[in-house]
Design goal:
Blueprint lengths: L38 E3 L7 E2 L5 H11 L3 E5 L5 E6 H5 L1 H10 L8 H4 L1 E2 L5 E3 H4 L4 H11 L3 E7 L6 E8 H8 L12 H8 L1
Parallel strand pairs: 2-3, 6-7
Antiparallel strand pairs: 1-8, 3-4, 4-5, 7-8
C-alpha cells in the first residue's frame, strides 16, 4: 500500500450501531483470585485527576462524568498531592471546615477536604503479585479504607510512583458480595478529626 495514498471509504447502512465499551476488570473473582485481578492498573487506565483549587461541586461532577469515586489531586502532573473521594465530598470533614472557617459549602475547594499524601496507605506492587483478593479485603478492613494505593519504584532512587488502586467498590462488583469497612484512625490527628 502506498503510505501517502488516501484510504477507500464506504457509506454506512441503516442499522449500523456503535460499539459499546466494556467496563474493564469486571470479570468474576473469588477470594483466592490473584490480587492483581482487582487492581486498577494505572499503566493501562488513565488516572482520574483534579487540582487542589477545584471546587467540591466541580470535583463531584468530574467523578460522575468519569464514573469514579476517587480522584488523584495534582498541581503538576504526574506528582500526587493527595486524594479526594466521594466520602470527602459528603462526609463530616467538609461540614467541620464550613463551620470552623465560617465558609459556605460552595466556597470549599478540593484542598480543603482532600486526604494529603502523608496520610495515604499504600502496598508495594511486588507484594500484590503474590497476594490474593482475600488479602486485599483484610487490608481494607484493617485500615478502614475504601481505597488503597499500589506503589512501585519510579526508577529514580528513593522515589516511588503510584502503579494502581485497590477499590472496595471494585472488589464488591467483581466478587459480588458486600464488604463492610469501618473507618479506622491510624494517627492521633485522624482520631481527633473523627471525634470532632
Amino acid at each position: 500500500m502506498n503510505p501517502h495514498a488516501a484510504l477507500p471509504t464506504r457509506r454506512l447502512e441503516r442499522g449500523t450501531s456503535i460499539t459499546q465499551s466494556q467496563p474493564g476488570q469486571t470479570a468474576g473473582v473469588t477470594l483466592d483470585s490473584p490480587a492483581l485481578a482487582v487492581m486498577t492498573d494505572l499503566s493501562l487506565v488513565k488516572a482520574a485527576t483534579t487540582q487542589p483549587s477545584t471546587s467540591l461541586r466541580q470535583a463531584e461532577q468530574v467523578m460522575i462524568y468519569q464514573g469514579v469515586r476517587m480522584l488523584f489531586v495534582v498541581s503538576e502532573m504526574p506528582t500526587v498531592e493527595g486524594l479526594i473521594t466521594t466520602t470527602d465530598l459528603r462526609g463530616d470533614r467538609q461540614l467541620r471546615v464550613v463551620h470552623d472557617r465560617h465558609m459556605r459549602y460552595d466556597e470549599l475547594t478540593v484542598a480543603d477536604v482532600m486526604t494529603p499524601l502523608s496520610m495515604l496507605d499504600a502496598i508495594e506492587f511486588d507484594l500484590m503479585k503474590v497476594a490474593t483478593v482475600s488479602n486485599m479485603i483484610a487490608t481494607l478492613k484493617q485500615f478502614g479504607r475504601n481505597h488503597l494505593l499500589v506503589v512501585e519504584s519510579s526508577g529514580t532512587p528513593g522515589r516511588q510512583r503510584v502503579r494502581g488502586v485497590i477499590s472496595r467498590a471494585q472488589i464488591v462488583r467483581q466478587l459480588g458480595v458486600v464488604i463492610d469497612v469501618t473507618e479506622v484512625a491510624s494517627t492521633f490527628a485522624e482520631l481527633g478529626q473523627m471525634l470532632a
